[in-house]
Amino acid sequence: MRRVHWYPLLLMLLVPQTASALQLRWGSGATELSFTSATRCTLVVQADSAESRLPAEWRLLWVADSLAIQFVAMDSLAACLLHEAQVSRIDAPATAADSAANQVTAHFCSEGSPATIAQQIVDLPARGHGKLKVIALDSVSGSLIESNEVRYNGGVDGAYPSVALAASSSHATDQFLVHAAGIGLSEVVEAIAQAPDSLWSLPLQITAQSDSTLTAVAQVVASMPASVLRLTSESGTVAVAPLAADGPREGVDPDFEALAESCRQHHCYYFDPDPNVYPKDFAFVYAISPNPVRGLFHLFYIREFRNVPATSSSRSFGHAWSSDLRNWSSDTSAAVFSVSANEWDGAHVWAPSIVQVGPNYHMFYTGVDQPDFVYGNRRIGYATTTAIDTGSATVWTRRSAPTYTVNHTSWARRDSTGTRRQQFRDPFIMADPDSAGHYLLFMVGQKLDDDYAVGVARNEPGTLDVWRDLGYYRSTDYDYSGNGHVVESVTAFPDSAYPGSKTSAQATWRLLFTHGIDSPDDQTIRFTTKKLGPALADTTLGPENDRVWSTPATNLFTYLNGDSTAWGTYATEHLRVGRVDFLATFDGAGILVSRMLWNGTNFTLLQPSVTAVEGGSPGPEPRVALRVIEALPGAGRLAFEIEMPTRERVRLGIYDVAGRRVRSLVDAEVPAGRMRVQWDGKDQPGNAARTGMYFARLSGEFGSRVVRAAFVR
Prior knowledge:
Elements: E1 5-12, E2 22-26, E3 32-33, E4 39-47, E5 57-64, E6 70-72, H1 76-79, E7 85-91, H2 96-100, E8 104-109, E9 117-124, E10 130-137, E11 144-146, E12 150-152, E13 163-170, E14 175-183, E15 188-194, E16 201-209, E17 213-219, E18 227-233, E19 238-243, H3 256-265, E20 269-270, E21 277-289, E22 294-305, E23 317-322, E24 329-331, E25 348-357, E26 360-368, E27 378-385, E28 397-398, E29 424-431, E30 439-446, E31 452-459, E32 467-472, H4 478-481, E33 487-494, E34 509-515, E35 524-530, E36 554-555, H5 556-559, E37 571-577, E38 580-586, E39 591-599, E40 602-606, E41 625-630, E42 638-644, E43 648-655, E44 661-670, E45 673-679, E46 692-700, E47 703-711
Parallel strand pairs: 1-8, 3-12, 7-9
Antiparallel strand pairs: 1-5, 2-4, 4-9, 5-10, 6-9, 7-8, 10-11, 10-12, 13-14, 14-17, 15-16, 15-18, 16-17, 18-19, 20-39, 21-22, 22-23, 23-24, 25-26, 26-27, 27-28, 29-30, 30-31, 31-32, 33-34, 34-35, 35-36, 37-38, 38-39, 39-40, 41-42, 42-45, 43-44, 43-46, 46-47
């Protein structure tokens, strides 16, 4: 009995067109071919006489008793000079899914008008037997087109493999519905959607099938990324077809532009409901949530307690959610996410960063194994969930061991035992824009010289448990960045013109981090900017006059021309939803979300000023200035600087976020020059003001100036 092997060969033309019928023959014109020795022959695919051209894509299926069949490409330049289409290039299986389906891709080229005939050179083995046919989909009607069958040496028995010619999906609520068209689909017994590199997979339930169509479904809340439909038949053969990513989900996703505009009129700000707690490093994500299915913004953050020993704080994450970024609900119970019984994250959990991987979410975070974290290891691990729900309804399944530590790098410091004092923290994870199926993990590590820098790693194919060290960014090194010896809280984002189809080398990227030096009042957000050309994961420095990443690092507050929105911020998270960008910042009291406005590759932050405050005229003199010069968390005071070009009567008041005046600080004539004004944290009657966000408003004949500051008692 002959051993039968089958292969689908995906053939593509350069010009997409349609045909209603196809003919297949050998170069001699016959449909039967006989030979005894190894033979090179020509296979011809032709559109029916009524058609003007071949379809853009078809599949050549073959069943044979030998694996020795070889398809041959012509010289690419010579192929394109002939009237009849010839194979100019043959690609091996590009993904694990292609390999499972035994699928290679041939590219055709022809000269002049669209081809009606295509020729494929085939090397057939001596005394081999087989049969072949071509199938395609009509691009207008979607109906199946099949050619006649050709044979060599009498052919073989056995069915052609199942083939999926096309697949599509719909995802209105939590039902992810997949439709496939092809041949032999009635034989399919298993359907899954998976990543091209098999990093993740989603089982689908087959609900209807015929020889040419198949429908399958899965319950999925998250919006689905691009994937591959993999169909396995009863005989074990595999068919694959690409599935496009979900687009905007009507009735689920909000109008992001209108929502961002609302942050111009209202303050998009979150405080922990416990006045003794302030949010620290955080993850800021948009996710589709169940019960009911709708899009929500989520914050997962360190809950840092005031006036308690550091050894007893930062032991859990809080979770807040909002549909409009203004009205927040929260769950601050330990059930959200807290320290575990595992040794590596049993004392503290820090700095969550969340990324969607297929239909699931992965939260990377820092675990600390000693209450006195000065002496504890800081290592990076992750937890997963199938859906980000409201409150503690989000169930995270964590790994029992850290995923990435200093032991995986050559640049990070470790002590002589290699087990204590591992300083790896503040992870930020994102999809690698230059390699589908890969992710980049940024982190902060202590270098061999004891200074801190930002490092990066890339996962090995098919897993998020194994990472390859790519080094640390020299631009964040103390010697080049202009920073202090300590760096914290890293994030990265591209300019607004960056589409998913570009490589990172074609966009401007910024790497943001906290400049955390010895004095807390000098902690600021800084960033380094990548030039066009190098990839995002390029950590090299480059010559002094042509840096890969800009040095020294830029102060965000200075970059925004003294915008008070950026004053006193300690951590940032960027989020792009639709065509809208947000930058969220922690300022010592709460988390402020600001709309980013782009002008080319530069941005500003949009925040409303005091609402419903009387007085002032637009267009103040440019030499009149109001600045925040002191806003230390826990100090119980704020300090401002007034700069006047001439002697003038002014009013300076403190207002809350609703526009209510809390305290009048100045209502008098002030001299030209600069003067310091301090607010002692009390309202007009002398009562202590609550921790929160406040505005200082300076007004006079010149108009008005407004600055924002977080007041932390």
